[in-house]
């Protein structure tokens, strides 16, 4: 009985060593690591993220504009952005896209974005997400995902 347990343990060790030799940790992009909660002894599962990475090349600004304003906007329009993390500096941006629809209900995991109204006691114009990208940002500009900005678009 003892010899059978040793053989099973040796087989399990050989299997684990083989799996470890075939293991690859791959990042989908280069960027900054956030939310690192992996500890020695943690077990990874295929296609289950363990480390949060902020993509270094996918920066965009989402500005929610009233529906009456966006009718004159089109992709490629120039915009100026004031980042709260860098006050008194204006950065040139381009309109990359304008949402064609929004969800009117705050239901999670929907394909359409929900943009909350600023108040619930009067009827306000809906706001639609306008995606902007910075044009030639300075190399030393540090951006923070989720930070605030002010945007002015020139249609």
CATH architecture of the largest domain: Beta Barrel
Oligomer: single chain
Number of domains: 2
In CATH, what is the class of the largest domain?
Mainly Beta
Number of strands: 7
**According to CATH, what is the topology of the largest domain?**
Elongation Factor Tu (Ef-tu), domain 3
Order of helices and strands: HEEEHEEEE
- The CATH fourth-level homologous superfamily of the largest domain: Efflux pump adaptor protein, beta barrel domain
**Low-confidence stretches at least 5 residues in length (pLDDT < 50)?**
none
Structural class: alpha+beta
Helix run count: 2
User: Residue share in helices?
Assistant: 10-25%
Feature tags:
single chain, 155 residues, alpha+beta, Elongation Factor Tu (Ef-tu), domain 3, 2 domains, five-stranded antiparallel beta sheet, two-stranded antiparallel ribbon, 2 helices, 7 strands, 15% helix, elongated
């Amino acid at each position: 009985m003892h010899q059978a347990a040793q053989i099973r343990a040796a087989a399990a060790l050989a299997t684990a060593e083989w799996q470890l030799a075939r293991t690859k940790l791959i990042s989908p992009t280069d960027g900054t690591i956030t939310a690192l909660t992996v500890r020695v002894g943690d077990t990874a599962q295929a296609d289950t993220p363990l480390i949060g990475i902020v993509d270094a090349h996918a920066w965009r600004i989402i500005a929610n504009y009233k529906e009456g304003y966006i009718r004159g906007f089109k992709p490629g329009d120039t915009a100026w952005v004031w980042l709260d993390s860098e006050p008194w500096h204006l950065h040139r941006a381009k309109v990359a896209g304008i949402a064609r629809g929004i969800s009117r209900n705050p239901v999670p995991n929907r394909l359409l974005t929900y943009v909350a109204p600023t108040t619930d006691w009067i009827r306000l114009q809906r706001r639609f997400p306008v995606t902007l990208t910075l044009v030639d940002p300075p190399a030393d500009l540090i951006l923070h995902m989720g930070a605030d900005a002010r945007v002015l678009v020139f249609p």
